[in-house]
Structure formats: C-alpha cells, structure tokens
Amino acid sequence: MSAALIFPSSMQVAPARRVDVHLVQALAMALAELGDIELPDSAPTAEDAQHLEALAPLYLAAELEHAGVLRTAELIAGLFASGAITQPLGPTAQLIADFWRARHERLAAPEREQLFLQVFEPSEFYPLMLALCDALAGQFDNPARPSDVRARVALQQAADSLAGWLAPHAVGMAMFAAGDIVQALAQATHFLRDRLLQVAFGAQDLWGLVATVGTAQGAGPAQMRRHVDLGRQGATVLAWLAAAVPQGYALDPASAPGQQLMAAAIAWRTAWSGLQAAAPRPGAT
C-alpha cells in the first residue's frame, strides 16, 4: 500500500509540521510583546513565611475581639475612671488607670474590627482555614496506607492555598498593629484576672467577667467560649503554617508536636462548627 493511500494529500506530515512552527512563532511573538512581565507564583516564599509569623497572634486577637475581651476591659476602665467602681482593688487599680490613660494610643474598636476584616476576610479566610484543619486531621491515617499519600498531598495543597492567600494580607498595617493589639490584650487580661475586680462584678473568673458584659450586648457565654477556642487553636495552626513554609509543610503525625498540631486543628474545626450552628457568619461556609 502506498504512502499516498495511508496519508491523503490533506493530511501530509510536512504541512502539519509547518503549522506547528507557525504556532511556535506566533507564541514567541506574543511573549515578546509582554516584555519583562512575569506571572505571579501563588506558592508562598521564605519572605512570606516571615510575614506570616505575625498573623498567629493577630488571629488570636481577632477571635478574642469577637469574644469581647478588650471591649470588657475598656468598659471597666471607663467605669473606674468615672468613679462608678467604688470597691477597693489594691494594685489592680493602677493597672486599670494605666490602661485607661493609654486608650488614645491604641487602635479603637472600629479600627481593630476593620483591620481584622481586611486581614481575615471571613468569606475567604474561614473556608481556607477549615480546609487546612481538615487536611491536618486527615494525617491521623496510618502512614503505611496508600491513602496517606493522598492525605499529604491534600495537606500541602491546603497549606499552600491558605499561606498564599494570607501572605499579601500580612504586610503594612497588619505588621504594626499585631504588636499593638497583643500588648493591649496582655494589659487587659492582667487586670481582668484580678479576683477583687471579678467579685466587684459578681463574676467567678475572667470569662465570667467577660460574659457579664457580653450577655448584656447579646453574646452568650457559649459563643464567647467558641471564639476563645478558635483563637487559641487557630493560632497554633497558623504558627505551624508560618514555620512550615520553608520546609514544604513537613509533618510527622506520630511525633508529639504533630499530635498537638492535629489536636489543635480538630479542636478549631469543632469550635467553628459549633459557632456556625449557633450563628452563621455572613459569607462564610
């Protein structure tokens, strides 16, 4: 059988090769027109990892803000400054006075809330965080099982997605505000833990004191506790994420740190599910 019968004139090899050359030339010309423009790499870099380090305490601060810790401290400080708190508080009185005097030096509640919304935009952050916690929980599989390979791939993809999304948010004002807000929280919890102050408000502990204010503003104790759990456990996960970026998200599920990380991820997922069931956030899934 001749070659002409196998390859009709309309399907000769030579014209096909000429078409390929034309395509390559056209692509080369199109790329040349782009000049030095480079496509962005979505994977986080080592520099991104340094920026991400500030987000773990900032996320804890964000959830404590939802729990009402700073709001409670500011209200109590205002009452103290107005003379409404008459019970003797000992050294705690000086702590409250210092906190009140510095109120204009720190971010106000609306400014903090705006910052948290910018860095941890709910409709984007929470689904990505949930996916990472799901992937970390999946590491409980036996490493000898084939499914563990898929679990590791899922973990890397989820970690890359969250870190890549967070990295651009971990710059600018977020880097400066993290220290400011965390310091304010440290000062607030210092005097909110004082037993004399708690007794003055009829509370048993710090969270009872926060609940006294939160309940008056429509937030129940269970909701506040879930925000606290989200902050604590989420900060653990985000701290690991920042440290693991240069290492390719290496994780030993059998090690003590690995077990603690996976437990934090599961606890965060549980708190998030409970919060969603009680009061779903707009735009979150």
- Integer-rounded radius of gyration: 27 Å
- How would you name the oligomeric state of the polypeptide chains in this document? single chain
Number of structural domains:
2
Largest sheet: none
Order of helices and strands: HHHHHHHHHHHHHH
Would you count the extended β strands for me?
A: 0
Structural class: mainly alpha
Strand content: under 5%
Unreliable stretches (pLDDT < 50, length at least 5) are: 1-20, 30-42, 281-285
Average pLDDT over all residues: 81
The level of helicity is: over 70%
Q: In whole angstroms, how far apart are the ends?
A: 65 Å
Q: In one word, what is the shape?
A: elongated
Please, how many helices? 14
Give a short synopsis of this structure.
By secondary structure, the protein is an all-alpha fold. Helix content is 70%, strand content 0%. The chain has two domains: 3-33; 46-278, no CATH class.
Write out key terms for the chains shown:
single chain, 285 residues, mainly alpha, disordered N terminus
